[in-house]
Amino acid sequence: MVLKTFGWSFAVTALGLAFAAWQWGWEAFGIVLILSILEISLSFDNAVVNAGILKKMNAFWQRIFLTIGILIAVFGMRLVFPVVIVAISAKVGPIEAVQLALDKPGQYEALVTDAHAAIAAFGGMFLLMIFLDFIFEEREIKWLAWLERPLAKLGKVDMLSVCIALIVLLLSAVTFATQAHTSTGHMDKSATVLLSGVAGLITYLVVGGLSGYFEDKLEEEEEREHEEEEKAKAEGKQVSMVGLAGKAAFFLFLYLEVLDASFSFDGVIGAFAITNHIFWMALGLGIGAMYVRSLTVYLVRQGTLDDYVYLEHGAHYAIGALAVLLLITIQYEINEVITGLIGVFLIAASFLSSVRRNKLLAAEEGNAEGGTGEKTEVSSGV
User: Fold this and answer.
1) How many CB atoms lie within 10 A of CB 180?
2) SS3 at position 67
3) DSSP assigned state of 238
4) To 10 degrees, what angle do helices 336-370 and 311-328 make?
5) What global pTM score does this model have?
């Protein structure tokens, strides 16, 4: 199962590292390896959240996610995206931007640094909305019950997450963007942050709204299909759901790609702290993206999210932390190690809580089967 799911990732790793060593030497080999590890550590929470969405798709769309999706992730976000940033910032064409990256890496990095405020605001708002919508939703299983229970009650207020996101954006523009860090020092980028943050918020609402609409339609049609199939059995008829399922899966696929793009912001920007070489960056982050994709599918097929019920909670808290860190980096530089460790810590804590919960449930079932009459209480918090 592991080899089947991660086979392509292992192959791409071997080929990518071998190519880096052959084309550019051992320095490139080491940097590409470091970038791969960086991408995996920063994007583990991405895999957990993606798995929660991907499990709603059939095997066909899971394969699309691993094939076409990975092409979009690697070439779109890890190669084209940095070039687009430079092209827009420097007001040059994409080809000129690539030449700039190859011939003048220092100037290329400076242009990306100047665009960081816009990137952080867009990605921060998108990720913040994911976190807020999660914690304001009423759910049966709660990890930090003392926090999630009152927040779920507050979530009954319409558009509360949007209001809070806009307040955070305004505070970020006033607090951080007035002295945003650029390659030439500090300058006021309030308008840029506000515009980019609103764009991130709109992107989330549009893509999330479309995927949610078709997902709801799919659930309604599945219920109706079940009823019609029961009636049609005697007549030998069948009810097809291919068209609607395709639409629902397609928009969920788009939602996953936008999610991946937002999660990739910190990895792409963090990579500039390690190297200015655009092809080393694309190769290293691309290898890491392959593992994130494979890990997502592995979590779905193994039913890991069903066995370790707090993992999704930990991943969403990691998303919230990443959103806040992205906004802070508008003015202050934060080491990528800190960003990665916060996500790893939250997910590890949620995993350990899930293990503890499973042990308590197993003990309770054992006591019940043994007829002891004892009952072990299972805590949903930590």
Assistant:
1) 25
2) coil
3) -
4) 160
5) 0.71
